[in-house]
Amino acid sequence: MIIQFIWCWNMWEIILNSIIKSKIKCEIYIKTRTMEKENMLKEKYKVNLWINKDADIVILAIKPNQFKEINLNIFNKNTIIISIMAGISIKKIKEKSLSDKIIRTMPNTPSLVWKWIIWYTATNNILKNEIQLFKKLFSKTWKTIALNNEDEINKITALSWSWPAYYYYFTEAIINIAKEMGLSKDISKIIWYNTFFWAWALLEKSNLDIETLRKNITSPWWTTQKAIEIFESNNFKNSIEKAIKWAYKKAKELNNN
Prior knowledge:
This protein is an alpha/beta fold. It contains ten helices and seven strands. A seven-stranded mixed beta sheet has the order 2-1-3-4-5-6-7, sandwiched between helices. The mean pLDDT is about 85.
């Protein structure tokens, strides 16, 4: 089996390592944009540094704004194209290729350090064994979850794919407030990271739902309740809802452009 990577951004090496760990027998070809990166690939991995037109699988490890620059018509109609591009629809990929076997995925940067979910949707004519192959190639790094259609990818882009940025944004605010209150930067970071991690760990292991866990901490006469009242008086939930819906709208616009 021949696997072809076209260009490479942050995600490609995670995918490559997942394929290597899967121990599926294959030849790997990589074509990137710079000699510097190709020299690094030569040293680090036993891969071929050119495009093989007979590839069984093509992985589009490129940024959306680079999509117009690539030529997919060189591959045959049975080639499976796996895209990790945000905002580029299956329809657009079909228009630039001979293949009708396309899997559109949505991974994210937390995969650099943790086994993350990769959401995907595929064209109808991909066979079950081909989907199983895709899952096996990605299984060492991601848990794969199928979606019914591409609009669900747009929704999850706003809710999940963008979530790390939302979390970092909220973290920045907490750390800055802690520093303004006189705590050192190091202590501020430890407080937030440690609190978030253990709150998540308790949620994962507890038999209680998230609302009950929140209420158990929110005593009516104590500090947490007052903070939540301030959040609510400033329409905190409404702000989140408005932001997510605008992100979803933007995701749809990117797919339609």
